[in-house]
Structures are given as structure tokens and as C-alpha cells.
Amino acid sequence: MKSWNLLYAFTLLHGFLYAFAGDTECPKTTAVSGDRRTNKNAFRIVQYNVEWLFVDYYNQADCPGEQCTWKNQTEALTHLSYVSNVIKDINPDIVNFCEVEGCDELNMIIANLQDTSYKSYLKKGTDSATGQNTGMITRIDPLVDLYRTEDRYNYPIPGSKCGYTGTPGTSGVSKHYITEFRLNNVDVAFIGAHLLAYPTDPERCAEREAQVQLLQKVIVDYYTRDYEIIIMGDFNDFDGKILDANNNKPISQVLDILKGNFGAYSGKYQLYSVADTMAQPLRFSDWWDKNNDCNSTANEFSMIDHMLVTKFIKDHITISYIYQDYDEFCGKYNSDHYPVVIDLVI
Question: SS3 helix, strand, coil % of the chain, rounded to 5?
Fold first, then answer.
């Protein structure tokens, strides 16, 4: 209880300071990359959309506030404590977070964990409407500062089957970061991304396909330089080849583009979904209360959170699962997503 009170006081102080200073980013790595794992031969990597992990007030989204899942700072702090407990239970070496506000929240998770082996890294994006970002906590420091591509891509892309008939436009990847790790002398490009929402909306589908064309360019660049690749995030889309528990099928080619099966760089590389290593009935990572009755049922789950990896990484996965150890319902303090987990031995 004492540590909770200290954290609450710390958060109130941050809320006051950053009302004026704006939220923080922390993309800079250390001069010498550290490795604070207890087991140097194993890596546990987690993808987790933590549903509006906001403590510092963000005006445009009114979060925490009446327009947000968490109506006040007390609820936001409770949510943060639930997220921290999930992380503690999984005990990952690297976590990619989606829907996190900034480094303040990442550092509060680390404080809750009381684990100094973690460091926080986040490169702020450009989604000013939500203020959401992607970031990580990790026991292994990246080799390069987190960076982004600020390019934009025309949509609809050639060959799109989204059904979008509106005015053509351009789209950028508003929430993502790119960095590099060396995992036991293996060079790995690491990309965390949160793509535009609404899997079945034709316009969002077209915009998402443009987003992943930009990421495909990043992937092929690393692939031609002999990097292993891990790209993960909330892609807000389904995999049409490795179906989820409810056989959801995409209207987009987002996953095929990222895997290297379609798009401008089709056939230049190949990535694989870690979901292929899981039994189909267990492939669900997100709850959408489609009938608005506030109770989750089996047909309301889907898999829109993904990890795609090169063959070398896939071949070295020893454990893969989706952590589904909490219930989904209206009024819960856990996320409406579940963490995707893999263990690597390299």
C-alpha cells in the first residue's frame, strides 16, 4: 500500500508538470548497449495493446476523462496497476506496447514492477487525435536510437481489393518505431507498429494497405542487409492464411504485404506469422463487444495483434502463446487485448 501511495503521489506531480510541458519521449539508447537478462540464452518477447495507458491528461482525446475508457486519474492508475501485474506474471525481456501515451507511463510500469532490469524506450508518433504511441520496456538495450519513417504512400494501392471508391489520398504510419538489437550475435531489426483501426471499413482498409507499403520498404531494406526481422503490433486486421479462432477473414492484403507476398516488394523477402505455431482455437487477442451487452462471448474475439518474423527467428521459437488469463467485460481494468508471447533460444 505504501508503494501504491508513493506512485500515486508521483503520478499527480507528473500530471501537474506535463500539463505544461507535454508528454515525454525517450528514443535515445545508451552509449554501450546493456543486457540485464538473468538467462542470457533465452528471450521472451511480448506484443501488448494496453488500451489507453494514459495517466498524464491528454486534452484532444479527453483521457483520462469522460470520452476515455478511464474516466479519471484514479481509474487510469488502477488500469496501470493491472497492466503491471500482467507484465509481472509473464516476465518478458522485451514488451512492445500499443496505445501508450508516453515514457511517463512506461516508467510507472517499471516502478510498479520494482524491477530495475527494465528500461523504457518510445518514439512519439503523429496521431494527434488520440495521442497514442508505441513504445517498449526492455532488459536489452537497442543498438540504435528509435526512429520512424515519415514518408507517405498513395492509396488505394495497385491491386487493392478493399472496395474503396472515394477520393484517392496518402497515408503515413502515425504510430510506429524502428530499431535494432543484437541478440547473442544475431542482428535483428525490430519494428513496433499500431495501424489504423476498423478491419472491415473500405477507406481504413485502403489507408492501412498504404501504411504497410511503407513498412514493407523498411523490411526489405533490412532483409537485403542480412538482418533477421521481427515486426509486431496491433495491425487492426486479420490474417487470411492463418485464420483466428473465429475464422475472421480480411478484406485487405495488409498481412500479405507485410509477409512479402504482395505489394511493391512482393517476392523480395518472406516473413512468417508466429500464430502458425499456435492451435487455431487459441488464436484470439482482442475483444469487441459487437452486441453491446457488456459480456464477452466466444464469437466476439479475434486476432488483430500479430508478430511476423524471418524463418531463422521462427525456427528458434520454443514457446508461443497468447496470455488469456483474464476475463473481458464492461467495467474491467485489464486491457481489451491479450498479450502475444514468444520465447526464443538463439
Answer: 25, 25, 45
Answer yes or no: is pLDDT of 5 > 80: no
How many Å apart are CA 167 and CA 54, to the nearest integer?
34
- Burial call 291-330: b when 16+ CB within 10 Å, e when fewer: eeeeebeeebbbbbbbbbbbeebbebbeebbbbeeeebee
Burial zone of 114 (CB within 10 Å; 0-12 exposed, 13-18 middle, 19+ buried): exposed
Length of the chain: 346
Helix/strand number for the chain, H first, E second? 6, 15
Residue corresponding to grid cell 481494468: 333
Domain range 2-345, CATH architecture: 4-Layer Sandwich (3.60)
Pairing assessment for the beta strands 94-100 and 42-53 based on DSSP bridges: parallel
Can you read off the three cell numbers belonging to residue 165? Answer: 471508391
The three grid cell numbers given for residue 21, joined into one nine-digit string:
510541458
Give the residue among 97, 96, 16, 2 at the shortest CA–CA distance from 55: 16
- Angle in degrees, 0-180, between the axes of helices 103-113 and 73-90, rounded to the nearest 10: 60
Return all residues near 116 (Cβ < 8 A) that are at least 6 apart. Answer: 110
Cα–Cα separations (whole angstroms), residue 281 to 276, 284, 291, 325, 346? 12, 8, 22, 15, 28
- Using the CB atoms, write b or e for 154-178: b if 16+ within 10 Å: ebbbeebebebeeeeeebbbbbbbb
- What would the pLDDT profile of 45-60 be if each residue is shown by its tens digit? 999 999 999 999 999 9
Residue given cell 521462427 in the structure block: 314
Question: Helices in 182-339 by DSSP H: which ranges?
Answer: 202-224, 254-259, 311-315
- Stated pTM of the model: 0.93
